[in-house]
Write a structure and sequence with these properties.
- A hairpin with a 3-residue loop joins strand 3 and strand 4.
- The relative contact order is 0.17.
- This protein has a four-stranded mixed beta sheet, with no helix packed on it.
- The chain is built from four helices and four strands; from the N terminus they run βαβββααα.
- By secondary structure, the chain is α+β, with helices and mostly antiparallel strands.
Length: 129
């Protein structure tokens, strides 16, 4: 399985990577930025590292982990770049976020499974207890 990486910035070790300052888009709608930032901050932890990364634009501590949604992987501080500095992410990723949200918004919640499983579990607890 391959995860698409985003939000990794230029450094001495990775001189070909983008500079976040060059991706700042002050015209990016704040509501859309908030949605994207929230999505990024709610990713699943993929890996955690020793030490902490700092924001390349303001110096704020940006964490020490990578997050994922199963398709993309990004540093845990990427939401900060989007929300606080208007760092624009690729349209493909923004569309991915909105598609993912739409799927969840349109999903119906099935309670039957939970009711049946919890009833079975209660029976086992009473029987074993």
């Amino acid at each position: 399985m391959n995860l698409k990486a985003l939000g990794y910035w230029k450094s001495d070790e990775m001189s070909d990577f983008p500079d976040p300052l060059e991706l700042v888009d002050s015209t990016w709608d704040s509501g859309e930025r908030e949605i994207i930032s929230d999505y990024l901050c709610q990713g699943q932890t993929a890996r955690t590292f020793m030490g902490s990364s700092r924001c390349r634009l303001c110096g704020k501590s940006n964490g020490s982990s990578e997050l994922t949604d199963g398709e993309y992987i990004w540093p845990s501080g990427l939401g900060h770049y989007v929300m606080d500095h208007s760092v624009r992410l690729p349209a493909e990723f923004v569309q991915h976020v909105f598609r993912s949200r739409q799927v969840l918004d349109e999903a119906e919640v099935e309670l039957t499974w939970w009711m049946e499983e919890s009833a079975r579990f209660q029976v086992r607890i009473k029987h074993d207890g």
